[in-house]
Specification:
Blueprint (H helix, E strand, L loop, with lengths): L24 H11 L3 H15 L7 E4 L4 H13 L4 E6 L6 H14 L2 E5 L3 H15 L4 H17 L4 E4 L20 H8 L5 H8 L16 H6 L3 E4 L8 H12 L23 H12 L3 H11 L5 H11 L2 E2 L3 H8 L3 H9 L14 E2 L12
Parallel strand pairs: 1-2, 2-3, 4-5, 6-7
């Protein structure tokens, strides 16, 4: 496969394009982020937004929160830097690992915040995961749409117009660019979040297995409802220069946030996607469809930040990507499907320039907390 001449992102990556030097559009976006964006001016823009919404309602903003590195930094920044009173909203996708609850308990007490958690019907979630897997090769439709759609619903219900997400959508993909200061609205939700499946389509795909009301948590609110409260849903990474490494250092030092091993990545990246027990399987799906995994993603980030040599990145990708996650066995049991069926369904969505060969796949290591996982 062809890969970017600067990072290691392959031609099978979603939204990727190469210029005449063989450099991908995500690397070019990173150039603009580091060299062209006036971050002082962006900071002033953020201050104006904050001044418009601060002290107007019971809460100044909503922070969507999983407990991973990005949402934890969002919360730290909003409370300690911007001095806002947020409502922390957690969409429980049923996959949180035990350490996350320990981290969150400590952090919520330390920062002094109100927290609202919603846990959807597991029987419905299970049907959504199976259907999403078969239609898109991604079983996380309920998580994608819930994290964004349900949070926006809470914004309307609690009359908290300002919602602050984390890293910019331009950080890793090219759905938007750093020149654009995008906000979350229906069009972007459908383009970037719901995998091309709205609630009406999902309902038809489920063939009566759930009621329309069961899908309401996954729906983006109507424009008239959002306009009524003067809704503004922004990404913090469009206004401050987002850097994962320094963000992680901040949350570890200031909040005592702890990382843990994740399937399929080098141990030094103990901060990456630590919250979800299904993360290794999600990355395995991407490997089956597109031929690259989570380590590739991490290498690209560090190359663009000037922290990684490309030759070393290739060696690390070869070492850590391409493993069957140990968690896949329990996952298949939970969804009641076979591994052959799982691979067959994902390969229906595979990129035409990549052919997955299961015979070349080695088994990954079992995570230390795997015996504590519960569904």
């Amino acid at each position: 496969m062809k890969s970017c001449t600067r990072c290691v992102l392959p031609e099978t990556h979603e939204t990727i394009e190469f210029d005449n030097e063989g450099v991908c559009n995500v690397c070019r976006q990173a150039e603009k982020k580091h060299k062209e964006v006036d971050w002082d001016a962006r900071g002033e823009m953020l201050n104006k937004i904050i001044n418009e919404y601060k002290n107007k309602n019971q809460y100044d903003c909503i922070i969507p929160y999983s407990g991973g590195k990005d949402s934890t930094y969002q919360l730290l920044y909003v409370v300690t830097r911007l001095k806002l009173k947020p409502l922390v909203v957690r969409f429980d996708h049923w996959g949180f690992r035990p350490l996350i609850n320990k981290n969150n308990h400590r952090i919520f007490k330390q920062l002094g915040v109100d927290v609202l958690q919603f846990t959807p019907n597991w029987k419905v979630v299970k049907q959504l995961m199976l259907t999403s897997l078969r239609e898109t090769g991604d079983f996380c439709w309920h998580c994608h749409t819930g994290v964004f759609g349900y949070i926006m619903q809470i914004s309307v219900k609690f009359n908290v117009p300002l919602v602050i997400f984390g890293e910019s959508p331009a950080e890793y993909r090219a759905y938007t660019s750093f020149e654009q200061i995008c906000e979350l609205e229906q069009g972007l939700f459908e383009k970037m979040i719901n995998l091309g499946i709205n609630n009406d389509k999902m309902l038809s795909l489920l063939h009566g297995k759930v009621d329309r009301r069961d899908l309401m948590p996954y729906e983006f609110p109507p424009k008239e409802q959002l306009d009524k409260i003067n809704s503004k849903a922004i990404w913090l990474g469009n206004y401050i220069k987002w850097d994962t490494k320094s963000n992680v250092e901040a949350i570890k030092k200031e909040l005592g946030w702890k990382g843990q091993p994740v399937e399929g990545i080098p141990p030094e990246y103990d901060y990456e996607k630590i919250e979800c027990m299904w993360q290794g399987i999600r990355d395995y799906c991407k490997l089956i469809k597109r031929g690259h995994g989570r380590t590739n993603h991490l290498m690209c980030i560090d190359i663009r930040a000037g922290r990684m040599d490309r030759d070393k990145a290739i060696k690390l990708c070869d070492k850590y990507d391409g493993k069957r996650p140990d968690s896949l066995t329990s996952f298949l049991k939970t969804l009641e499907i076979s591994e052959d069926e799982f691979i067959k369904e994902i390969m229906k969505s595979a990129h035409p320039k990549y052919q997955f060969n299961p015979k070349l796949i080695k088994n990954g290591k079992r995570l230390p907390d795997a015996d504590l996982w519960q569904i």
